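Researcher: I'd like a candidate sequence for this fold, 244 residues long. If you have to choose between options at a position, lean toward the conservative one.
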């Protein structure tokens, strides 16, 4: 039993599917033992063989078993350690945002070593079209864009994207997987946000890094995107999301 659990832990902690040899190396077991245990785990749906190259990922039976627990997880409560970790890694202020059906609501924050780029009181509603987190919801939450467009969208700064510019921006977000805010709500304030998915694959929140304009060049954006996407993926796994 302990060997089977070790194999599941090895597969679950890897960002990629693993082959028999790699699993054996990680858990310290012979290839034949690993193959036998994988066959049993696969038969019961706890692991899944991907393609013809003999690599394995976690199976959906694990998600089904954890479903009742995962369904009750609060993304804000579960995500608090992730905010603290990302703030420490980036040195920037990190926020957790949720979508309430009409607005982007900032729910939690953690401050990095650079201090607070922009204070947003928890519970504050931010405009969806002019915030990084809001644009995540417009792209990845069904019905969010329709709700946002039900009334005329205001222009907050000369950088606020409207009309075809906003449409083009949303298409770019869909392709790259994260959203940017480049002084679109407040001059000098920028940000980057990544979707957080739960066990159903539903976007239940956005992990957002707030950055002042003078620290938001293209290289820094790429760096922040990589770190934030990694932490959002990690949080998604804690909520039961399995990357396919």
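Model: Candidate sequence:
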């Amino acid at each position: 039993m302990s060997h089977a659990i070790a194999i599941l832990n090895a597969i679950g902690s890897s960002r990629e599917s693993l082959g028999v040899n790699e699993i054996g190396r990680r858990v310290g077991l012979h290839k034949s033992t690993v193959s036998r245990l994988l066959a049993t785990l696969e038969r019961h749906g706890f692991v899944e063989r991907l393609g013809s190259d003999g690599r394995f990922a976690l199976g959906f039976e694990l998600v089904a078993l954890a479903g009742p627990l995962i369904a009750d997880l609060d993304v804000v409560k579960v995500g608090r350690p992730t905010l603290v970790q990302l703030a420490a890694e980036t040195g920037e202020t990190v926020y957790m945002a949720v979508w309430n059906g009409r607005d982007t609501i900032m729910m939690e924050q953690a401050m990095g070593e650079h201090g607070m780029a922009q204070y947003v009181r928890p519970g504050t509603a931010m405009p969806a079209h002019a915030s990084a987190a809001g644009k995540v919801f417009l792209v990845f939450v069904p019905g969010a864009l329709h709700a946002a467009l039900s009334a005329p969208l205001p222009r907050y700064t000369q950088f606020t994207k409207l009309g075809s510019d906003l449409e083009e921006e949303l298409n770019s977000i869909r392709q790259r997987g994260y959203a940017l805010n480049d002084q679109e709500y407040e001059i000098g304030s920028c940000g980057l946000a990544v979707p957080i998915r739960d066990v159903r694959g539903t976007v239940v929140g956005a992990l957002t890094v707030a950055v002042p304009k003078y620290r938001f060049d293209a290289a820094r954006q790429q760096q922040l995107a990589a770190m934030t996407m990694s932490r959002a993926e990690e949080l998604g796994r804690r909520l039961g999301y399995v990357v396919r």
